[in-house]
Amino acid sequence: MTIQNWDKRLGVYLVMDIGDVNGQSALAIAQAAIAGGVDVIQLREKKAPLHDVIETGRKLCKLCRDHGVLFIVNDRVDVALLLEADGVHVGQDDLPADEARRLVGTDMFIGVSASSMEEAQRALEQGADYLGVGAIYATNSKSDAGDPVTPQLIADIRAITSVPLVGIGGITVDNCTDVMEHGADGVAVISAIVGAPDPKAAAALLKRRIAAYI
Amino acid sequence: MTIQNWDKRLGVYLVMDIGDVNGQSALAIAQAAIAGGVDVIQLREKKAPLHDVIETGRKLCKLCRDHGVLFIVNDRVDVALLLEADGVHVGQDDLPADEARRLVGTDMFIGVSASSMEEAQRALEQGADYLGVGAIYATNSKSDAGDPVTPQLIADIRAITSVPLVGIGGITVDNCTDVMEHGADGVAVISAIVGAPDPKAAAALLKRRIAAYI
């Protein structure tokens, strides 16, 4: 899948970096997650040298393309362009969506993180194609995620827009249905898949739990 | 001046961020430095939100353009493209020069940081238009600058290439001529101008000291 035939489904949305976890390479984790049914992979790498990000990112992008999984790059529009990603995801301190649009045109979609109605409204005004809403619950995966917003924020934003919404932050198999019931089009997770003993099984279970809502 | 009529002179090369220093705004510091005669301004901002970087960066870029000063953006090729900078400068952990070239084409020049012959050779192979060589002397301005390389590295690199070389790291009015005598085409400074009581006077003195070498 690419943006040209994107069905607006976000489903199970995996956020990951290029590092090994539990002795598994990023590529192996991505393969397992795809086998388990993830719909989207976002590469969010804040620390590694960019030549490593480019090298592993190209492999991840090809893997996603080969399996009909959307591939999104966090923050760096330049890296997204080089990897020919399907989309770029920007946070509140990254490039604003309208500036990012000047670089990617309509070839790539743009997701924006929002942790309040104000941020959501601004992102929509600036042309966001989807919103990442959170942190829904408390999380240890992102040190600057702020206080949890609760799933209610998804319902509030749902009331003002039809763009896809993905909840993020502290989402697990136990609370993912609550996120979907508040109007989300998908759930974004890091540790629930990457940190699981069996990433494929973890992805598959998440997918099954949210299946009724997408 | 832009890359189309760049005379390959680097001269006094100011590296700065968008923050206030000693009660002076970045724009005021840049204005003073330009009045003092700087040839190049590189915007190197690692912390501020990108919407602020874009906003101040556009003003800095216009100021440089109006005064025939080259304007270069550090690290972020996406920001360099948005600001329509003259060039982008990449470190060893940033995008490699050949990847950056795929994004900027020949509209923008690409500088690369090198702290060894190996790094210099690789940067030249990857199409660097100039090299930033250092840290020449010990510096407090860049926490990851590594051990000083001494001005001899400039002479060593000078022997293998004719691309412009700018020394960086701990350069002051007292040691700048030594850097130039080893074959540099310019001296890059942060605190020697930004941290000076009178940035204009500091820039002018540096300019006078290196005038005989360019």
UniProtKB/TrEMBL annotation, chains A, B:
Concerning InterPro entries, the annotation shows: Aldolase_TIM, ThiamineP_synth_sf, ThiamineP_synth_TenI, TMP_synthase
| Keyword annotations from UniProtKB, A to Z | Magnesium, Metal-binding, Thiamine biosynthesis, Transferase
Q: Which Pfam families does this UniProt record tie to the protein?
A: TMP-TENI (PF02581)
The protein, known as: Thiamine-phosphate synthase
Q: Which GO terms describe its cellular component?
A: cytoplasm
Q: What is the lineage of its organism?
A: Bacteria, Bacillati, Bacillota, Bacilli, Bacillales
**Keyword Nucleus among record annotations:** no
Which GO BP annotation is one of this protein's?
A: thiamine biosynthetic process
Query: Which residues of the sequence carry a binding annotation for 4-amino-2-methyl-5-(diphosphooxymethyl)pyrimidine?
Result: Q42, L43, R44, E45, K46, N74, S113, K142
Keyword Nucleus annotated: no
The species this protein belongs to is: Aneurinibacillus soli
Q: What is its EC number?
A: 2.5.1.3
Q: What class of enzyme is it?
A: transferase
Question: Which pathway does the record list?
Answer: Cofactor biosynthesis; thiamine diphosphate biosynthesis; thiamine phosphate from 4-amino-2-methyl-5-diphosphomethylpyrimidine and 4-methyl-5-(2-phosphoethyl)-thiazole: step 1/1
Record: residues binding Mg(2+): D75, D94
